[in-house]
Amino acid sequence: MYLLADLGRANTRAALIEKVEGEYRAVARGGAPSTFGPPWEDARISFQEALAEISQIRRLPLVSPEGKILLQQGGGAEALFSTASAAPPLRVAALGLSGEYS
């Protein structure tokens, strides 16, 4: 069983992957509005909310009462994989030269 998460600027999403009949499948998904920016500026809040949603769906403890992620030794997932797509927007300037307007 594996946890996947993406901490985004607008939304935080999580998925639980399990081996079912010899194949890995997404068996539950959770999400929450991101808390990456103001006023919270703490991505852990939305991450824990997304995991709590999966925990409720699967009736499986994934987060301890203290808010820590439970990995296999604590009865939870085998591993956690996470990405962050909440970086500030990339500012790009495009320039072009032509014989008529340079």
Furnish the topology, listing elements before pairings.
Elements lengths: L1 E7 L2 E10 L2 E11 L9 H16 L20 E7 L17
Parallel strand pairs: 1-4
Antiparallel strand pairs: 1-2, 2-3
In N-to-C order, the SSE pattern is EEEHE
Number of DSSP helical runs: 1
Runs with pLDDT <50, length 5+?
Answer: none
Radius of gyration: 19 Å
User: How many angstroms does the end-to-end distance come to?
Assistant: 59 Å
Helix-strand category: alpha+beta
- Side by side, the strands of the main sheet go 3-2-1-4
Strand percentage? 25-35%
Estimate the global geometry from the Cα principal axes.
Answer: elongated
Mean pLDDT: 81
Biggest sheet architecture: 4 strands, mixed
* Number of E-type strands: 4
- Fraction in helix: 10-25%
Structure write-up:
- This protein is α+β, with helices and mostly antiparallel strands.
- It has one helix spanning 43-58; strands spanning 2-8, 11-20, 23-33, 79-85.
- The protein has a four-stranded mixed sheet.
- The mean pLDDT is 81.
